[in-house]
Amino acid sequence: MLRFEDYELALVIVLTRFLEALAIVLSIFLAMKGYKLRYVVLTVLLVALSVGVSVGALAFREHFALIVSANLLLTFTLLSLLILYVVKNPERTKSFSPPPGARCPVCNVLILRDDDICTAKIGDYTYFFDSCDHLVQLLKDPKFFLERKSVYPGKLKEVYVKTKDTKRWKDIKNVKLVERDGKLFAYEKAHSSAESVSTEELLKRAQNVLGGGN
Ligand SMILES: [Zn+2]
């Protein structure tokens, strides 16, 4: 027959294992989806802390059930809030660091971190552009770049630009593309008088060409 201590220990082991599995699944999800490393670390730390509390609860037998259930509830709430925040705020939580050796598919130049870089995911590939102007060139004439094999067909998604004025990463739908000296720049807060290009229309037309059967 199981003694009280065995039941407590078994419960802690089961919960710990379950949380470990959850932490692994969430970390892989965050890393695969290109979110910043800090959110992966935070997920792991949160779960490690929770496991620590559950193990520590063994020392307080009279409050064991209360501590373990409160801990579990709190961990689930915090994890849900964290994941919800990360997924709902991609402009802040995504990692936009270009991989070493990344080249602009339009002009083939090496991407440097300090440029006004932009990124677009087409199918399974994430492309980086050295300038907003080159991203727009691709969106304006995707057929040319498909034929040149600079990009491969697929669903167009996750198009982000680093703005010229605030230097922040923004979804291209949330910026204004303003023409200066024949080049397009992305502004977060452009004067309403400034001549700007409709990004929604641009994306829709590019998608029709890039989609290519997918
Ligand atoms: Zn380029």
What does this protein look like?
The chain has 214 residues and is of the alpha+beta class. The chain has two domains: 4-93; 118-210, no CATH class. The protein contains seven helices and seven strands; from the N terminus they run ααααββααβββββα. It has a four-stranded antiparallel β-sheet. It has a three-stranded antiparallel β-sheet with strand order 6-5-7. Strand 3 and strand 4 (169-171) form a beta hairpin. The longest helix has 29 residues, at 4-32. It is elongated. The N and C termini lie far apart (59 Å). The site of zinc ion has 8 residues, from loops.
Main features:
2 domains, alpha+beta, elongated, binds zinc ion, three-stranded antiparallel beta sheet, 49% helix, 214 residues
